[in-house]
Amino acid sequence: ISGDWLIYDSLQPPQPNWAVAVQGSKVLEIGTTEGLLALYPQAQHKDARGYVIAPAFVNAHTHMYGVLAHGIPPAAQVLDFWSFLRDYWWKQVEDALDHAMI
């Protein structure tokens, strides 16, 4: 499987034009697309250009606008998650944003 980028280690930068050699459910090897195509010339090649290949079970979603809340003191004591949303997050963060800010 080859893609535009391969993310394989949180301590390493994403690798451009890398691929993953897979047999069944096992990863055999990672490396450059060119290198793996040479090592496994008979293998079925899945071209995933335009995509990023990343390990499974990666939750890549984020709330980037959450950084806007840093340093804003809560208006009331936070008792639980719902009070946090109701009394702080929705009023002081989300309701204060407009389309241009996002």
From TrEMBL:
Enumerate the UniProt keywords alphabetically.
Answer: Hydrolase, Metal-binding, Zinc
Aminodeoxyfutalosine deaminase/Imidazolonepropionase-like composite domain location, by residue? Answer: 19-43
Tell me the superkingdom of the source: Bacteria
Per UniProt, what is one GO molecular function of this protein?
A: hydrolase activity, acting on carbon-nitrogen (but not peptide) bonds
Q: Which InterPro entries does the protein's record reference?
A: Metal-dep_hydrolase_composite, MQNX/HUTI_composite_N
Put simply, this protein is called Aminodeoxyfutalosine deaminase/Imidazolonepropionase-like composite domain-containing protein
Lineage here is: Bacteria, Bacillati, Chloroflexota, Candidatus Thermofontia, Candidatus Thermofonsia Clade 1
